[in-house]
UniProtKB/TrEMBL annotation:
Signal peptide start and end residues: 1-24
GO biological process: proteolysis
Pfam families: Peptidase_C69 (PF03577)
Name under which the protein is recorded: Dipeptidase
Catalytic activity: an L-aminoacyl-L-amino acid + H2O = 2 an L-alpha-amino acid
Family, as annotated: Belongs to the peptidase C69 family.
GO terms of molecular function: cysteine-type exopeptidase activity; dipeptidase activity
EC number per UniProt: 3.4.-.-
Keywords from the UniProt entry: Dipeptidase, Hydrolase, Protease, Signal
Length: 562
């Protein structure tokens, strides 16, 4: 009976946590005035234990009248139906199209009774990739996305979308209407220039302006629908989208909003004021009893950000905060900032949790999408793309106007159950998984190569921009796109080869728990050519103290130890 009880508890726990674990992603949104060069940026970490890191590509195409597009759910591949194609669709590289429009997402779930809609065709993933083929600007994307769910129904649960073009950055939050209804209720807000925002699997829009269409648009029934359901009785002015459709709880604060807080904390002072909230200590007050200590939807960073600053926001394990994953006993002797799933666990019927950081082991791919208004669209947009764990990945510049995908990122070059020697995902996964064995040492070696490559990419991009723009304006747009394609393809494939070489180096250096000695970039040999005696690094003193405290005299040496 006891075994049956615990099996049942595990099943219930899985059902409750599956939504958070399988779709736990992180986005940041950065406006023109918040960047050094005046570009806009959004980030996305696609985190799923069953997602393989590859770069999707859809070439531009013309479609005869009556052409239909089949829709398959992005997460599962389930066939949902079909929708008419427009006369022309745009080229899309990953999550960015040829007009520098970029879209990311995180799933917040929300009210469970709204998660199912029979006959719906548009899931959140298809909504992104279909829209990128049809829209040129962020505002147009919002219109396309909301029109699609109105006409064809919304198949997924609640979703937050990051949407950016070279001028504007928007957050759109949308949730279906449940069974017996069609479509969704939604609200979208433009992030004020000079500010940054973020979302991570918790709905973030609370109250919003009702008469400012330049900065906020929403479905006509977003408030009335909630009233009909009996979920809200206050004034329209005080209506909070998140608190009505996706109320924040301990998990929403600790597992989700904490990641937004961590990213903000890397670029802005004052985030310590929200520490209690992200630890799950939610305060309520006011007539509607909504949380009063939530982190704001947007903040102003202390300085304007570079693309590498934004990459840095995606590399975080709460270092330097109360939630620092390198500092508790779970990190082990080598400060490993990862905890294998599940997200929560029990001891003596008391529930505990692991932290959920921005950087996590189950990332399929992540990116920083950068849109630059001063360049022709195919050249101005760069999808800085990386696979596997964001902390140890390397972001390669994929121009949005490329016409070919690098071999290392191609769809079909391996999958999560099939190894490929030319796949970037497997090269980066191999390095990361080996590093997990002795993280505090190996991550330093990884970061040297990571910085070397990314510094080179950032330094070369202005020269590539200039040459491509010259071709685009004075010779041939086709030649310009061929040029940036060759650059992106070569850099990504060469990066993958360099990472494979890094993996070989780490294997040699750290074999068998020892550390090979090095001098001037070479492993040290004796005068006779033999390997020098390695460093027997052992464990840190504090770890030995914990062992003694836990085991008493079990390992104590007595008498003659020789």
């Amino acid at each position: 009976m006891k075994k049956i009880f615990w099996v049942g508890m595990l099943i219930v726990s899985f059902l409750i946590l599956n939504q958070q674990i399988s779709n736990a992603c992180t986005n940041f949104l950065v406006t023109k005035g918040a960047t050094i060069d005046g570009s806009t940026m959004i980030t996305y970490a696609a985190d799923s234990h069953t997602l393989y890191g590859e770069l999707y590509f859809q070439p531009a195409a013309d479609h005869p009248e009556g052409t239909m597009r089949k829709i398959y759910e992005w997460d599962t591949g389930t066939y949902l139906g079909e929708i008419p194609q427009p006369a022309h669709t745009y080229s899309v590289v990953g999550n960015m199209n040829e007009f520098q429009l970029a879209i990311g997402e995180t799933t917040f779930g929300g009210r469970s009774e709204l998660a199912s809609q029979s006959g719906a065709i548009m899931d959140y993933g298809s909504l992104i990739y279909v829209t990128l083929q049809r829209a040129k600007t962020a505002r147009e994307a919002i219109q396309v996305m909301t029109d699609l769910v109105t006409e064809f129904g919304y198949y997924s649960s609640g979703e937050s979308f990051s949407i950016a073009d070279p001028e504007e950055v928007w957050i759109l939050e949308l949730i279906g209407k449940g069974e017996g209804e069609k479509g969704a209720v939604w609200v979208a807000q433009r992030i004020p220039d000079g500010f940054i925002s973020g979302h991570a699997n918790q709905a973030r829009i609370t109250t919003f302006p009702l008469n400012d269409s330049k900065n906020c648009v929403y479905s006509k029934d977003v408030i009335s629908f909630a009233r009909e359901k009996g979920w809200y009785t206050g004034t329209n002015r005080d209506f909070s989208f998140s608190d009505v459709y996706a109320p924040v709880d301990f998990g929403g604060a600790r597992f989700c909003d904490a990641r937004v807080w961590a990213g903000f904390n890397k670029v802005s002072n004052g985030m310590e004021n929200y520490t209690e909230y992200v630890k799950g200590n939610i305060e309520h007050d006011g007539e509607n009893n909504f949380p009063s200590n939530r982190i704001p939807l947007w903040i102003k960073p202390d300085k304007q950000l570079s693309v590498q600053d934004v990459m840095g926001m995606m590399r975080d394990h709460f270092e330097g905060t109360e939630l620092d994953m390198t500092q508790d006993i779970g990190a082990g002797p080598y400060q490993l900032p990862y905890r294998w799933r599940g997200l929560t666990w029990e001891v003596d019927s008391v529930e505990y949790c692991n932290e959920r950081a921005i950087s996590t082991q189950q990332t399929g791919f992540s990116f920083v999408a950068q849109s630059r208004s001063w360049l022709p669209d195919p050249i101005g947009g760069i999808l800085w793309f990386g696979v596997d764990d964001a902390y140890s990945t390397c972001y390669a510049p994929m121009y949005c106007g490329i016409t070919e995908i690098p071999e290392c990122f191609k769809v079909g070059n391996g999958d999560l159950l099939t190894y490929s020697g030319t796949s970037a995902f497997w090269a980066f996964s191999a390095v990361a998984n080996f590093a997990y064995l002795r993280y505090s040492d190996m991550i330093q070696d990884i970061q040297i190569i990571q910085k070397e490559l990314e510094d080179k990419f950032v330094a070369y991009v202005p020269m590539i921009d200039k040459a491509a723009e010259e071709l685009y304006n004075n010779k041939s747009k086709k030649q310009a796109r061929k040029f940036i394609t060759q650059y992106s393809v070569n850099e990504a494939n060469n990066m993958t080869k360099r990472w494979q070489k890094l993996g070989q180096y780490l294997l040699v250096k750290y074999t068998d728990g020892n550390i090979k000695r090095e001098k001037d970039g070479e492993f040290v040999r004796t005068e006779t050519g033999m390997p020098a005696s390695p460093i027997f690094a052992g464990y840190p003193e504090w770890w030995y103290e914990i062992i003694v405290k836990a085991t008493g005299e079990h390992f104590k040496v007595s008498g003659n130890s020789h």
